[in-house]
Amino acid sequence: MARFIIRRVLVAVPVLLGLSVILFLFLRLLPGGGPAEAILGQHATPQLVAQISAAQGFDRPLYEQYFNYIGRLLQGDFGSSFIDGRQVADTFLIRFPGTLELTMGAMIFAVGLGIPLGRLAARHPNSWIDGVVTLISLFGISIPVFVLGYSLAFIFGVQLHWLPTFGQIDPRLDIPPVTHFAIIDAILAGHWYVIDAVSHLILPSIALGSIPLAVFTRITRASVIDVSNEDYVRTARAKGLTERRVNSRHIMRNAWLPVTTVIGLETGALLAGAVLTETVFTWNGVGSWVVTSIQNHDYIVVQSLVLIFAVIFMTVNLIVDVGYAFLNPRIRYS
């Protein structure tokens, strides 16, 4: 198993190196005459351009800039924002818990509802139950996230006044940000604050989890039907095993393989792609930070966040590969 993990890590190294080259060139190829001009935008003056170029090393040879860039990355220095001057790593550690919390809420919603729906449809293929589940999955994967988000906010927040529509927690509660996870901080603060934190999480989790819900439903349905037609399943039933044992030991154990892969991929995608949901619900996460940085021409932040997102996505894929190898031992020995 250790050799399997090492191979996967080594495969990721050239990918990250290639991405670092692309991101390095991204900032240098921005329109406007140069990276300093692109960052300053309409506020660019010869004095400011010279100052920014000297501070960021844009006036040095290209190869020297790249090696300095790699050296800083290896030391954990992802640069600093031109807007507030704060280190990207420090702001990321404050905002990422919000994105992680939202992703976990979306995945709980998608997995908790999508897999049972997929199994239900697989047990009744080509029936009205299968048709209803298919309709739900098509709706979930077709409707844009921002449309669903605004619709949920309007119905349950504006019209019914059931759930809050913005933020991670009511600012009037004045809960100290100990971990920057709203639910954990609410639990630490005590009383009924956790109810408020969970209520803020419901609508954005549903909006963000709608597409993964549809994907998990369809993948689970297809995988269960495919495994159910295998010879070893028919043999297990012919031996007189109970249907519950056949489902748990023979069908679902093998049907989990493609489902696990998709869960991992969707988790990585949500961690790096909650931009629209965070913007709609004014969620203090990394996604909304990306939008603000692009609007403010804070390209150093954007450059660093893309690289961090890539590392997160590849880490999640590595975890999925290891989990896949545990589910199917033939993989780690191949």
Summarize the structure.
The protein is mainly α.
What is the typical, i.e. mean, pLDDT? 84
| Quaternary structure classification | single chain
End-to-end separation in angstroms reads: 11 Å
Order of H and E elements: HHHHHHHHHHHHHHH
Structure description:
The protein is an all-alpha fold and 334 residues long. It has two domains: 2-74, no CATH class; 94-332, Orthogonal Bundle (MetI-like fold). Helix content is 76%, strand content 0%. The chain has helices at 2-28, 35-40, 46-56, 62-74, 88-123, 128-142, 145-159, 182-189, 193-228, 231-238, 243-272, 275-280, 286-295, 299-327, 329-332. The mean pLDDT is 84.
Topology (elements, then pairings):
Blueprint lengths: L1 H27 L6 H6 L5 H11 L5 H13 L13 H36 L4 H15 L2 H15 L22 H8 L3 H36 L2 H8 L4 H30 L2 H6 L5 H10 L3 H29 L1 H4 L2
Helix pairs in contact: 1-14, 5-6, 5-9, 5-11, 6-9, 7-9, 8-9, 9-11, 10-11, 11-14, 13-14
